[in-house]
Amino acid sequence: MARRCRRLAGLLCALALAPMTGGAAPAATPASTKAAAPGAPVQVLVPSLESRGARPLELDGFWFTAPGEGRRPALVLLHGCGGPYDRQGRLASRMRHYAGLLREQGWHVLVLDSLTARGESELCTQRIGTRAVTMANRRLDALGALAWLAQREDVDADRLVLLGWSNGGSTVLSASNLTHDDVAAARPRPRALVAFYPGCDAELKRGYRPSAPLQLLVGLADDWTPAAPCVALADRAPASAPIAIERYEGAYHGFDSTAPVTRRKDVPNGVHPGQGVHVGGNAAAEQASRTRMLAFLNEQMR
Predict the structure, then answer these.
(1) d(CA 142, CA 163)
(2) Which of these, 68, 63, 214, 211, lies nearest to 149 by C-alpha position?
(3) CATH top-level class for 2-19+30-300?
(4) What predicted TM-score, i.e. pTM, was given to this entire model?
(5) How far is CA 60 from the centre of its chain?
(6) Interhelix angle for 93-103 vs 283-300, to 10°?
(7) Which positions ≥6 away from 13 have C-beta within 8 Å?
(8) Is Hydrolase a UniProt keyword of this protein (predicted)?
(9) Rounded CA gap, 184 and 140, in Å?
(10) Would you list the domain boundaries of the chain?
């Protein structure tokens, strides 16, 4: 708990100095909302559907308010295995950039942290099957975030979105697959789903019935979460629930960044276990994927 408090205190300080702004505080919010410095996103506690004893597990989150009045659509941003923070403990540039991009469209944004409350800082170096935070955990987090958003007076509960990257993209798939009992029972359901380079194997093998329209964005050179299972997922989708997929030639994992491509030898998973994986940006894929993401979301938010 002490580590969590120190992290949150540092984050609020860093976010107050960051160029990204969160807009004015909403007129009415759940009791879990905490004060933040002017111009910074609001620190919030979001109940997961996972319980600890008699109480729900409370997750750290950062709430970016859209400019303007009235009820607005809202998106949950789901981080990858590295968590939502950078090496300095600040909210990662990817999260801040996308929050700003989406706010410009007039949409609220919630960045959700599934790791800190569970005593973890990253999952990337943990083998799949032994990870301390499982996909079942993250699915319950995403469903809890949707419920939290639906209770807000400034949110249009009929226009909610799950958007994730890598492990967070896999969470989007898991939290929208109606073959899971908890997903089928949960309300509200999202209006749209976006997954950047997710791992698609698990939901492909299970059988995927999406609760909302889905846009997949994958790199064909990805050797961490390969594109092929995602292509198969889209190909097998019924005509009544089609899945849109965009494939980017020469793009590795994390293509929507400006970072150079490097090989991470500390990652035990991937196409060639034990040999590491490639991660890094691709300028063409970065631009094309964001353009496609915004077009898809604007289509679905009508």
Answers:
(1) 10
(2) 63
(3) alpha beta
(4) 0.89
(5) 13
(6) 40
(7) 37
(8) yes
(9) 12
(10) 2-19+30-300
